[in-house]
Structures are given as structure tokens and as C-alpha cells.
Sequence to fold (441 residues):
Amino acid sequence: MAAARGDPAGSPLPPRLRPPDATADPARVAAQVLDALVPGFADAAGMYVLEQLLSEGNAGRQAVGAGQRGLVMRRLATRHASADAPALWAAFPSGEVVALPADSPSVRCLRDSVPVIFDQPGSRALRWISPEARTTLGRYTSFLAAPMVTRGTAVGVLVLARAPGAPPFHGADRQSAADLAGRAAAAVADSLALMRHQSVTEALRPPRPAVTVEPQGRLEIAGRCLPATGCDVGGDWYDIIPLPGQRTGLIVGDVMGHGPLAAAVMTRLSAAAYALAGLDLPPSEVMRQLNRTALALPQDTLATCAYAVVDPARQSCVIAAAGHLPPILAMPDGTTYVLGLPGGQSLGVTTASYGQARTELRPGTVLALYTDGLVETRTRPFDQGILALRSALARPPRDLDATCAELASAPGDIREDDITIVLARIPLSITPPHDGANQRN
Fold:
């Protein structure tokens, strides 16, 4: 079937590629992309992704410019407009792992980050494929390989083909294909990130929907992160980062929305936040850099985050927040108060700077970081929810894990939003230094 005509020269117009569904199945993303291209822009198409990314589930290892010795790729999906499509699918089955030589158009386009137009794959590449595949390729007279690159990372190659009845690919098609391949790369990268997130979630998931964090050095910690009812994954996250000097970093974040799409964004932001915190940057700088990451994501992003660095030796805590609800301190005597933090806009809005606050954290005092799903519902505003949380934290000191489990279950069996709560406490056995460094400032 010849491709549809569109522009004055008779060349097909590039389609408007709708954002593929958020899914942890990269093959499904590939199928949705190719369905938009065939028939119309091309008579046949295939999407190839670097096998290394699929085996590791991490779209961040293969840098642009690689491929001097050829590449190993997996064919995620193929599409053919021909009536003999079943035979063509048999020649190029989805899921097949192929080794492409360094001089093949697909490898060259990915190495140079430039779409390549060609008549046939080349004699060396043809020797590497089956006779059925060579016969199938002979039915097409014009090919275009476009590099799938997102945020400087190579993901794979989008290969398009046109039959003799369609106009061959020309210069204007290069840019159209490059744009399509870039959007496809971002969608596949999100899918790989979500796949990795779900794999980690399954590996760490205990028999009950809760996570208990073991004491981190000289700090007691407990946490829960539960998706909204009806969702397997969500946009909330928390992390615990060991820091020099027996300090501990605590991150709690919340991506707007819930479900797979929010989880895909969450995976990227949480990885960036963990890496930034691991550099031992001040909390305010972590928020600033994390906001830059959010702004660089291919999709519109809105998220909140709080980052606290707890120093048990100095009995102090430094906290910065980006549009996040303020932390709560619960003293051993039952008094509680909401920490006043410098204002900081949410992540992903525009470039911004952030402040930070330092407070003393006496042994036995509980620091509570949480997301709005814990304190806000359709029938209860967040300020009332915060009062309820303070009341629950004001009870006599007890096991942090039991307290955390009780707080996470307080909204009931139906969770309207993702819920995250992290509690941290310096044990009463910690003795402060005598250098005056533990004074609040």
C-alpha cells in the first residue's frame, strides 16, 4: 500500500504523535508509535531499542556517540501496510535481538545523532539477516533511520520504509523523522523508568503494604509510602541517604497526580534527588538543582519536595522545601509545632532559588515529613488534617514503626491520593557535644 500523499511534492505529511500511554511495557509504547506512522508517513516501520537498556531497565547508560563496534538491539515492534503483513511480521518478529554492524545506517545514525536516508541496508548488514528478511527488504526502495535520543541519552533507532509507489524520503523528511524519534525516545525512556520502578517495588514489597526502615546509624527511622486506592504505583516517594559525619538525609516528594504517569516522573525525580543528596549539598541547593531537573523533563512536571539533613551528634536538623507541606516536630513532653520554613515554589514551574532553616532536634523529639495525601481529602482541608496529625504525634513516645503504621492507615481503606509519612527520632541515649553547635539559629 502506497503511503498517503500530503504536501505539494507528493510526500506524506508527518503525523501528530499523541503521547503514548504511560506503561511499564516498552513494546506497547513502540506499537502505539508505529501505529501512528503506518500507513501514512511510511509503508513499514520498526523500532529498535538498545538491548543494554532493556536488560538493565535503566535508560541512562548508553551515551550518544557509542556504537563504534556495532550495537546489539532488540526489535520492540514492526508495522507493515502491505496485505502480506503476516509474512512480513514473520521475517521481522517483535522481540528479536539483533546485532547491527558499525557501518550499518542504523548504527551510523545513532552514533552521529543524524537521520540517515538509504536505498538498502548494505551488503554486510544483509548478510546478517535471514533470507526471508532480505526478500522483505527488497520490497521497499527508500529507507530512513532516525536516532531515538532523549536528554542526551541514546535509546534506540526508528527505521521507516517506503514502497516503490510512494515518494522516496528526502531532506524535509529527516527533520520530521528526527522529531518523531525524539518523542518516541522520551516515551520509551519513561516506560523503562517505570518498569525499573515496578521491579524495585516488587523486590522490596513485604507481605503487608508497608515499609519499615531499619535504624540509620544513630537515628531511628520509620516510613510508609502507599499509592492511591486502585493504583499499583504512585507519584509519592521517600529516600534515606547516609551522609558523612553520621548524618542522614531524608527526602519526601510528591508528583502531582497518581498512577503510572506520575510514577514515571517520580522515578526520574527521585533518582536525581538521591544523587544530589549523595553529593552532600546543602538542602537549599539540592532543591534548586532538583527544580532544574524537573524543568528539563520532556513532559510538564509539577511536584513538591522536602529535604532534611539530621545530625544526631549536634542534635540539629537543616531542612529545605519546594512547595511542600511543612514538617512537624513532636517533643517528648507531648507538645508539637509546625516548622516555619523559607518559602520555596514547587518543582517544575520556573527557575527559582530556595532557602533553608536550621532547628535543634533534641533526643526523643520526632521529626515528621509527609505528603498531602495524609492530611487532605475532599471533605477535610489540609490545615485540619495537620491538626489531626499533630494530635496523633502528641501521644506518649512509643515505637516509631507502630506510630507510622497507624498514621498511614488513618485515612481509611479508600485512599484518594498517594500517602507518604516518614518519622525520624534521635534516641535518648545520644549525648550532645560541648561546642555549642547544637543551638538553634
The two ends are 74 Å apart (CA to CA). The chain is about 30% helix and 25% strand. The CA atoms of residues 158 and 236 lie 33 Å apart. The chain has a mean pLDDT of 79.
